[in-house]
């Protein structure tokens, strides 16, 4: 049984440095405040709103723990791969519940559940060798193609994010077989599919999610997987992002002193430019008199000629609240 596997956790899509780590099963069965975002995402027909809601969800790297979200910064592989099957790429597939049941007949499917949009499914599969991640993916891609299913090619990226989703009835096989096949992309060989293999009694099940509610914040407060990567130095920008991630996930107001708030905003703007507004807004949101409009106005008026602040000043401010880089 695959049970104690931990993966990196990112509180938002743009994050480069993980916020923490979480057990893969805890993540898959997570019942949190993000369920309401998933429900809104599945109901709206507005493309921009769907994109905004999806990007506000936390995410994990299914294939392991990373010190940074780059393939060459893998710290500890999970030997798991995630493949996405999107409804828009498979117009002939309309019933995702039936698709989950069909995919469950494959002996190597460990988990299959609805995507955040509800218009697709994702499957998590244990594989033999993380060093052959792409070759395992190409084999799975070809098998799926032989079954008339198109999978998202970006799943070949070992550090690809999997957004939070929720499924009341996921398909689970705690004793899934380890996938051993590989395929060179240049090969024209089609792999024989086991798609019609009969289901083995007792091996797999439709799981009714009744697990104990787990707070994502609790997961984020676990020891960080960055401890494993202490030998890999972080850049000043990455150190800052890591620190601010902790502030956000612990929901601590470090902006109660006006001059500190200005320094925090200036450091963020200097390092991240205009893209840092979202980060500044999240850090500011824990103040009792928070105003999104005021935060935005202040962020864009910040100027190095008017205000002085170093990155070190941000670390010193955070340290006053028990948060360290």
From TrEMBL:
GO terms for molecular function: hydrolase activity, acting on acid anhydrides. Residues 255-318 form the Primase C-terminal domain. Coiled coil: none annotated. It comes from the Bacteria. Residues 53-171 form the BT4734-like N-terminal domain. InterPro entries: BT4734-like_N, PriCT_2. This is VirE N-terminal domain protein. It comes from Paraprevotella clara.
